[in-house]
Specification:
single chain; mainly beta; Alpha-Beta Plaits; Elongation Factor Tu (Ef-tu), domain 3; 2 domains; 6-stranded antiparallel β-barrel; 5-stranded mixed β-sheet; 5 helices
Amino acid sequence: MPPAKQRGSPVTDTSLAVRRKRDVVAVVGPDALTYLQGQLSQDVEVLEVGGSAETFLLQPAGKVEAWMRVSRLAEDHYLLDVEAGFGAQVVARLTRFLLRTDCSVEEVEWDLVTVIDAEASGFSPPVGGLALPVEWPGLVAIDLLGPSVELPDGLAEGSPQDWEARRIAAGIPAMGSEMDSTTIPGATGVVDRSASFTKGCYTGQELVARVNSRPAGTPTRIVRASGSGPAPPVGSEVTVDSDPAGHVTSVATVDDGFVALVSVRRAVATPAEAMAGASPVSLLGV
């Protein structure tokens, strides 16, 4: 049964429903909370049932294993949803330290439908699942996550490319594009919303805390960018005043040109006008 739009549903003429592929990992059992609290950068203890938050899963040395969302489905039932193709990596990392712990960690086949330009209050959760708000600069959406999710009635269906353009414009990083196993969390631009500095210890915490305490920041950072010409390919070198400044990590064509995410060097001040390959581009900052 599709999630029904409720009376007074806050949707707009631009609202789109997009099917997205995410890998989902279930962590279930009496020790699930305690275990995740020691493995994730987010403060899992403060999550209420039905709540969610972005989080890092880090390597022992502090680099990124995965950036994902943690949601609390029930008292001892948590879900981790991550970019498609990274679920097995999350399972492998979590089970590596799963010793004398009464909880299970396994991938599950769940659906995800994102309703762009709509607020969570306008939709009911899918049966057995969750309705999760998505709020970023210039983007308000709702993720309908569940064992089986149909497209909501009365909404136009968008494409994965529609989501990709909005993701990039909002500055949302993605595993495999803006970060991988060599990435320092501080270089992603999402530590403030993905890590707690008041909870107890967790694996990889030392590097996060050390970088956060340094005014200079990390050697690189992710910034939003846009241009009105042809979209540069991912990987294109970005220059400012002919000096190397970084490279394009994600790009999407939009009606008036393109939007992009760019990894820039620490010394690059933004906003700034730059070149991405042969295309002029405006570096917009975080």
